[in-house]
Amino acid sequence: MIKEKVNKAINSQINAELYSSYLYLAMSAWFADNGMPGAANWTKIQAQEELTHADKFFEYVLERGGKIELDKIDKPEGSWDSPIEVFEAVLAHEQKVTSLINDLMDVAISENDHASKIFLNWFVEEQVEEEASVQDIIDKAKMACETKGGLFMIDKELGQRVFHPAPAEE
After folding, report:
1. Is 53 annotated as a binding residue?
2. Is the pLDDT reported for residue 168 higher than 80?
3. 157: annotated binding-site residue?
4. Domain membership of residue 133 as a residue range
């Protein structure tokens, strides 16, 4: 049985993951509206990934005999001034999610919930990857702004991203 504090914290994280998906959909729409189909693809896949994260948390709570309590999802930002600004917002958001995951791990540790600590390790590792991936895009985009066609090449590269659902828990 999942501990009550951990259950409550994971329900909050489910909401955060759903908001993340919604935010990335807004970013995808912005990129599509601004002629960057590759970046629109990248952020739409990011939205799908966040939904799978929410589902992993959802299934974990049920598997542990917990109770799901869903909350409203806030409206995300929908307007940015440049592609780099969007990706800087992605990085800031991923850093916030990292903080939320770390806080969730702290709750599992304080509640001595070993199963949840093991479950959360995947998310801790995932956040390291997320932040590094986005920082790489920002670094490339800043360099690309110095040459004509640079953003076009990055957009083309981002368009190659394919959705890979998170592996199922064994």
Report:
1. yes
2. no
3. no
4. 4-158
